[in-house]
Amino acid sequence: LALALALPAVGLENGLARTPPMGWMSWERFRCNVDCQADPRNCISEQLFFEMADRLAEDGWRELGYEYVNMDDCWSAKQRDAAGQLVPDPKRFPSGIKALADYVHARGLKLGIYGDLGIYTCGGYPGTMLKHVKQDAQTFAAWGVDMLKLDGCYSSAEEQAKGYPEMARALNATGRPIVYSCSWPAYQGGLPPKVNYTILAEICNLWRNYDDIQDSWESVLSIVDWFFTYQDILQPAAGPGHWNDPDMLIIGNFGLSYEQSRSQMALWTVMAAPLLMSTDLRTISPSAKEILQNRLMIQINQDPLGIQGRRIVKEKSHIEVFLRPLSQAASALVFFSRRTDMPFRYTTSLAKLHFPEDAVYEVQDVYAGKIVGALKTADNFSVVINPSGVVMWYLRPMALPVQLWHVARQQAHGEGSRPALL
C-alpha cells in the first residue's frame, strides 16, 4: 500500500507500453491543415480521424498491433472555454473528442491526443501552462484518451523541468491508463548533462529525443546518424515501458524510394522505436502497405525483451551493420548501404560480428520471408545490398555453446532480462 501511494510522486510506472507503441499519427502527412472548406478530405477534423480509424480496423492494421489513432497539433479551438477547459474546434470536431474516442474504442483501437507544455502549442493553439496541467489531464481522461503527446513549444527549461513530471503525476491521478509521450529531451538537445535519461525513464513512456522527421531521405539519415552516433547514451535508456522515439514512419508518402522505405522500417525496428505511421491509409500503395505490414518485422520490433539495437560495424565501403538482441537468444541483423552507385556484395561472418563461437543459426530473410539456411558462426557469407537499401535477417539459434543454452532457457521462461548476444 505504501508503494502504491508513493508511485504517483515517484514517476509514471503505469504498466503501459511494455513494447513500443504502434499506430497512426496525423502530423507528418497532414500537419496543421485546418482549411476544411478548401480541402475537406485532408484537413484536421473528426472526419479524418474517423476514416483513419476505419482503415486501421478494416485493412489488417489492428490485428498486427497498429492500435493508436493519434491526433497531433491544431485540433482545438483557439481559446479555452469559460471554465478554462480545452475544447475542440467546434466546426472541425462538432461531435467532440469523447465521441471520437468512443468511435475509435468501438473499433478495438485507442485514441491519442496532443498537448504542449507552454503558452501555445507549436501551431499557435492553447497550450498547457503549469496551472492547467491537472485540469487538462482530467479533461483528457474524461474524454477517454489513451495516449498523450506533450510537446514543448513556448516553454522554458524551468517550466519543462516542473511540468513534464507534474503531468506524469496528474495522468496517474486520473486513474485512467494513458501512455505518456514527452518531447522534453528534444527541447534540451537530447544529451546529458541537460537530459537525465534515468529520471526520464521514470516519468515518460516514450520521448522525442531529436528533430522532427520530414518527408525526405535526408531527414531519415540525419535521425539515423544522430541516434547511432550517441547510441552509448541512448541505447541503455530504452526498455519495456520507456522508449526512445526517433519520430514517425513516413513510408507511403512522397519522399522515400522503395528501398529507402524498407530501410526506414528496418532501422526503426532495430532501434526498438515506436511504429507510428504518418501517411494516408486511404490511398496507401500496395508496396508501402506490404513493408508496414511485414509480420516478422513487427514481431522483431515488439520483442518482449525490449532491447534497443546498436550499430556494430561501419565500413569504409559505406556499408553499416546493426544488431538487435532478441528473446530466446535470437537476433536481428540489418545490413545497410549508404552507397548511391549500384548493388554491393558485402562479405563477412557471424564470428566477425561477435556472435559466440561454435553456434549454428537458422537465418530468415525478413523481407523475403524465406529461410536462407543454417549458418555456423565461422562461415563466411555474402549479402547483396541495394543503394540506400537494407538486407535484414532474423537469426534463431539451432545449436548454441552449452553456456548460452542456459541464458536462452532463462529468457524463454522470462527469468532473465539480459540478451545472450550483445
Automatic annotation (TrEMBL):
Q: Tell me, what is an example of a GO biological process annotation in this record? A: glycolipid catabolic process
Q: Name one Pfam family in it.
A: Melibiase_2_C
**What catalytic activity is recorded?**
Cleavage of non-reducing alpha-(1->3)-N-acetylgalactosamine residues from human blood group A and AB mucin glycoproteins, Forssman hapten and blood group A lacto series glycolipids; a globoside IV3GalNAc-Gb4Cer + H2O = N-acetyl-alpha-D-galactosamine + a globoside Gb4Cer; a neolactoside IV(3)-alpha-GalNAc,IV(2)-alpha-Fuc-nLc4Cer(d18:1(4E)) + H2O = a neolactoside IV(2)-alpha-Fuc-nLc4Cer(d18:1(4E)) + N-acetyl-alpha-D-galactosamine; a neolactoside IV(3)-alpha-GalNAc,IV(2)-alpha-Fuc-nLc4Cer(d18:0) + H2O = a neolactoside IV(2)-alpha-Fuc-nLc4Cer(d18:0) + N-acetyl-alpha-D-galactosamine
Q: Where in the cell is it found?
A: Lysosome
**Where is this protein primarily located?**
other
Q: Domain of life here?
A: Eukaryota
Q: Coiled-coil segments, which residues?
A: none
InterPro entries documented for this protein: Aldolase_TIM (IPR013785), GH (IPR017853), Glyco_hydro_27 (IPR002241), Glyco_hydro_27/36_CS (IPR000111), Glyco_hydro_b (IPR013780), Melibiase/NAGA_C (IPR035373)
In short, the EC number is 3.2.1.-
**GO CC entries:** lysosome; membrane
Q: Where is the Alpha galactosidase A C-terminal domain?
A: 306-389
Q: Which molecular-function annotation in GO is an example for this chain?
A: alpha-N-acetylgalactosaminidase activity
Which keywords has UniProt assigned to this entry?
Disulfide bond, Glycoprotein, Glycosidase, Hydrolase, Lipid metabolism, Lysosome, Signal
Q: For this UniProt entry, which residues form the secretion signal?
A: 1-17
The record's family statement is: Belongs to the glycosyl hydrolase 27 family.
Q: What is this protein for, i.e. what is its function?
A: Removes terminal alpha-N-acetylgalactosamine residues from glycolipids and glycopeptides. Required for the breakdown of glycolipids.
Q: How does it assemble?
A: Homodimer.
Q: What is the protein's name according to its record? A: Alpha-galactosidase
User: Which organism is the protein's source?
Assistant: Bombycilla garrulus (Bohemian waxwing)
Lineage of origin: Eukaryota, Metazoa, Chordata, Craniata, Vertebrata
